[in-house]
Amino acid sequence: MGVGISVDRLTMRYGDLVAVDEVTFDVRPGEFFGLLGPNGAGKTTTLEMIEGLRKPVGGSVTVDGTAPSGRDPALLRRMGVQLQASSFFERLTAREQLDTFRRLYGVDAERVDAMLDHVGLADKADVRTEDLSGGQKQRLSIACALVHDPDVVFLDEPTAALDPQARRNLWDLLQGLNDSGRTVVLTTHYMDEAEELCDRVAIIDHGRILELDTPAALIRSLEAPVQISLVHDSLPREQLESLPGVDHVGHDDGALTITTAEPAAVLTWLAERDALDGLSVKGATLEDVFLDRTGREYRA
């Protein structure tokens, strides 16, 4: 059911600005793939070329072996697209908006109410789109992208305006789509979202791919120390500091904190002394990888 995507030296320029600079990667059929990067990195432009909304000035892209820029009707029916900015037909209710989309694809009418329920808008079905909140409009936009049950779904920052409950519910919906064999490609600024959902992620900046791997592999590559915290103030600090890999032992808000590159040795030592009360272990995250690769300076 899912489709593969091949991107080869994809390039887009606007005058002297190179927005996407010979980007190359593949998305496997049925994969959940994430494009991560700072503002202006080239994520949305790359996604729009894969969707066929922009024609590259160099390189090529195929979706299931077909160039999307050709606007092949058979391929378009297999693609679901949610854009970064939502735009709806004026003066239509949420149900009428979604009904318009399902008619374009020849989908049964029953699909409309099912999708409204899926994205938590069943109680807003008869509300005009201009009267919906920003988060509700975002959810309706996602419903429009999914109403025809596509084989590949492109989502550009799908949870940007959602509250925590709606965000988690959408995660479940997208994970369910992917579990059923569909290919999902998204851009997001939420690193926890990418870490939770994506099989692989590409970190892009200044139009180039900096890293491409599974979230777990990227986190391991950072080789960052682990911080272990526990509620205990009577442990011999000198012995802790002498353990292999321990870099620092201190106190933070009443908790003993141990920074180490070898957490297994520390945890074994603590377990042998029955000193695991209030234990928490914090390692590196995908956000740490992102900041390490792209820098910490402010991006407008």
TrEMBL record:
One cellular component term from this protein's GO annotations in UniProt: plasma membrane
Gene Ontology biological-process annotations: response to antibiotic
Main location class: membrane
Pfam family, one: ABC_tran
Keyword Nucleotide-binding assigned: yes
Stretches assigned to the ABC transporter domain: 5-231
Annotated membrane topology: Peripheral membrane protein
UniProt keyword list: Antibiotic resistance, ATP-binding, Cell membrane, Membrane, Nucleotide-binding, Translocase, Transport
Membrane as UniProt keyword: yes
Domain of life: Bacteria
GO-annotated molecular function: ATP binding; ATP hydrolysis activity
SMART domains for the chain: AAA
Segments passing through the bilayer: none
Compartment list: Cell membrane
Family from the record: Belongs to the ABC transporter superfamily.
Protein's name according to its UniProt entry: ABC transporter ATP-binding protein
